[in-house]
Structures are given as C-alpha cells and as structure tokens.
TrEMBL record:
<keyword id="KW-0812">Transmembrane</keyword>
<dbReference type="GO" id="GO:0000139">
    <property type="term" value="C:Golgi membrane"/>
</dbReference>
<keyword id="KW-0808">Transferase</keyword>
<dbReference type="GO" id="GO:0006790">
    <property type="term" value="P:sulfur compound metabolic process"/>
</dbReference>
<keyword id="KW-0735">Signal-anchor</keyword>
<dbReference type="Pfam" id="PF03567">
    <property type="entry name" value="Sulfotransfer_2"/>
</dbReference>
<keyword id="KW-0119">Carbohydrate metabolism</keyword>
<keyword id="KW-0333">Golgi apparatus</keyword>
<dbReference type="GO" id="GO:0042446">
    <property type="term" value="P:hormone biosynthetic process"/>
</dbReference>
<protein>
    <recommendedName>
        <fullName>Carbohydrate sulfotransferase</fullName>
        <ecNumber>2.8.2.-</ecNumber>
    </recommendedName>
</protein>
<comment type="similarity">
    <text>Belongs to the sulfotransferase 2 family.</text>
</comment>
<dbReference type="GO" id="GO:0016051">
    <property type="term" value="P:carbohydrate biosynthetic process"/>
</dbReference>
<dbReference type="InterPro" id="IPR018011">
    <property type="entry name" value="Carb_sulfotrans_8-10"/>
</dbReference>
<dbReference type="GO" id="GO:0001537">
    <property type="term" value="F:dermatan 4-sulfotransferase activity"/>
</dbReference>
<dbReference type="InterPro" id="IPR005331">
    <property type="entry name" value="Sulfotransferase"/>
</dbReference>
<keyword id="KW-0325">Glycoprotein</keyword>
<keyword id="KW-0472">Membrane</keyword>
C-alpha cells in the first residue's frame, strides 16, 4: 500500500493558482505542530499505515488497485502523529549565555517562530486532506549533524547544499564544490527517499531549518537568472509558452527560441488562472515548498541576514569552527545580486493592479515570515 501523509486542510479554500487575488495558499496553514515534551502546540500531520485486518487480504486485487488509486479515502486509516519533535531550537551553551550577540540572535529566532506559529494558528483548517511524501521532497538530510534543510531556491540554497556536503564529509571546503555538483550530483539525500520509519525518525529527532527571502526580491532574482541569461530549459519550456500566450505580434524567432521574455509577460503568466505552462519551484510559495505549518521548523533564517543567521545556526549545531557560510555567488558572478532597488525597478514596469495581485499571490509568505509590504499603495 502506498505510504501517504494526512494533513488537516479546509477543502473550501480556493487555489491561489486559480485565483491570484485570493490570499490563502492551497496548502493553507493548519494547526501548528507540537513537541513531544510540550503542550503549547498541537501537531496535525499524520501518517497513514496499512490496516492489517484479515478482510483486506481477501479483497479482489482489481478492486484493491482501484481503492489505492482513490488514496484509500473511504478506509479508516490507523493514524500515528508525525513530527511531534522532541527538539526545539538548540539551547545556547553556558559560555554563550553572556554573549549579547548570541542572546540577541536567539531571541530573534524565538520571535520568528512565534510569528510563524501564530499565523498557522490563525489560518488553520479542520477538514482533512490526504497528501503524499511529495511534501517532504524539498527537504535534504544530513545525518552526521542530524539536520533537515528545506530548499528554497534563490535564498542561498546552493551554498547551503555546499555546507551540508562539507558537514557530511563529502568535501573539505565549500570552495571545492562546483555548481553542477551541488545541484546535479545527487550527493545529498532527500527525506522522501527514506522509508516510513526513516522519515518519522528524522522529522521527530533532527534539527529542521529553512532559509527564506523577501518574496518579490526572490521572484525578480529567479526571473533574472532564468530568463535574462541563456538557458536550455526555461527558454524552450516556459519562455515559448509565455511569449506565445502574452506577446502580441511575437516574432518567429521569439516563438521558436522562447528567449527574451519580458518581466510584465512573466507576471501575466504567474497570475493567469489558465497559465499555459505549470508552476516552478523557483517562484512557488515557501508555504507550498516547505509546508511550515505542517513541519515544525526549529530554525528560520533570512537571506537578508544570511551570514549572521547561517553562522549562528552552524554554531548552535556544533559545526567545526573553521566552517563558515560561503559568501561567493557562483552563477553570473559578475552581475550584481538582486537588491531591493533592483526589485523595485522591475515592479515599476507593472500596473498598480498587477503589483497588488502579485502581493496577494505571495500574501501568506509575507505574513508568515513578517516581511513588510514592498509598496506603499498595497493593501
């Protein structure tokens, strides 16, 4: 029987991909998870196991196959609480408690987790929806230091993978690891690659962390990377579809190559309820990529304070003192990083309505991670 996850979600919620103006995400925040040794949070993600009743063994194989395809929604599953982690943010060492900088960073983490927890509680749902291990497929595993890292593209993920590889003994230095090795070498394990017990054990005992970035800035960074430089995947797959749908009198060359997508066309695609090509992890919601209301992340870092947050995390987990978070930019290294000023210049190309709909599209990420409205005219 296929292993499935179960979470609580309001089935009446509208998919933001079908209605960009609707501010709730499809995988809406649910009741915040709990610790095994804590009573302040209640976890709502459950694992569906096999029902070992004898009658199941006597079921016609064809009928059983049909039931499997319906995700066993008519059976009463045996439920085991998932992710009731006995861990929290690792405690400061006694010698660190007099360090004002460490204490300040520790309090920042507590506040970020509080805001995330409160947002989850506010937008929780009570109806159940079954999902698959896909929802932990973005989580990378480092067993030596017992880390689970949810990958958020354009928020330092390449360098974080380098750090995990060094921690795992796969390289002696982050500088030795090339970009293609990081993303295509398959050296790091993903959480969905483990069996049920392996997933359960790691969710409950490892330190879970993610790093996020201001949503508009992350979006512009992804657009610049994928559409303003040669790319043999995003141009033919996304570019051709976007130009064909949204550009009037497009040239044959543009339709053939998919190169030269304009930011306004890209936003039209993003907000279209009938977009001609699917979503991509580089501009998807963090709420969908990492399910922060289902998985009780112990550490929430921000791209805007990356060096400080990352090195604080490495200190907390007891990483080697000579390991620090890399500063280098390995793709388009001669190009300036996407900043607030650059982001505003791109969004200035849009109408006020398009900016508002874009904000609505990422509203849960803005709310959950406490980012300010990027434009004063947004509501």
């Amino acid at each position: 029987v296929q292993e499935l996850f179960m979470l609580q979600i309001d089935s009446s919620e509208m998919d933001p991909y079908q209605n960009p103006g609707y501010r709730y995400s499809l995988y809406s925040p649910v009741n915040a998870p709990t610790k095994l040794q804590s009573t302040d949070r209640k976890q709502n993600i459950m694992f569906v196991m096999k029902d070992h009743q004898k009658k199941d063994a006597e079921v016609n194989p064809i009928g059983l196959h049909k039931r499997r395809r319906r995700f066993i929604i008519k059976k009463s599953p045996i439920l085991i609480a998932m992710n009731s982690s006995s861990l929290n943010l690792p405690m400061l060492k006694s010698e660190d408690r007099n360090n004002n900088n460490w204490k300040s960073l520790y309090q920042i983490q507590r506040e970020r987790k509080r805001i995330m927890r409160d947002t989850c509680s506010k937008y929780k749902s009570n109806n159940r929806r079954i999902i698959t291990p896909y929802h932990v497929s973005r989580i990378f595993v480092e067993d030596k230091y017992r880390i689970l890292y949810c990958e958020v593209p354009k928020a330092g993920c390449s360098n974080w993978k380098r750090v995990l590889m060094v921690l795992n003994g796969l390289a002696s230095s982050t500088k030795d690891i090339q970009h293609n090795t990081v993303h295509y070498g398959n050296y790091l394990k993903r959480l969905d690659g483990f069996d049920r017990k392996g997933i359960y054990h790691r969710l409950n005992t490892y330190t879970k962390m993610l790093f996020i970035r201001e949503p508009f800035e992350k979006l512009v960074s992804a657009f610049r990377d994928k559409f303003e430089h040669p790319n043999n995947y995003y141009h033919p797959v996304f570019g051709k579809a976007i130009i064909s749908r949204y550009r009037v009198n497009a040239s044959k060359e543009a339709l053939r190559t998919g190169s030269g997508v304009k930011f306004k066309e890209f936003i039209q695609y993003l907000l279209d309820v009938h977009r001609p090509v699917g979503m991509d992890i580089h501009w998807d919601h963090v709420n969908r990529l990492c399910s922060p209301c289902l998985i009780d992340y112990d550490f929430v870092g921000k791209f805007e304070s990356m060096e400080e947050d990352a090195n604080f995390f490495l200190h907390l987990i007891g990483a080697p003192q000579n390991l620090t978070f890399p500063r280098f930019k390995d793709r388009h290294s001669n190009e300036e990083r996407t900043t607030t000023k650059i982001t505003q210049s791109y969004f200035a190309q849009l109408s006020p309505a398009q900016r508002q709909h874009s904000y609505d599209f990422y509203y849960m990420d803005y709310l959950m991670f406490n980012y300010s409205k990027p434009f004063e005219d947004l509501y």
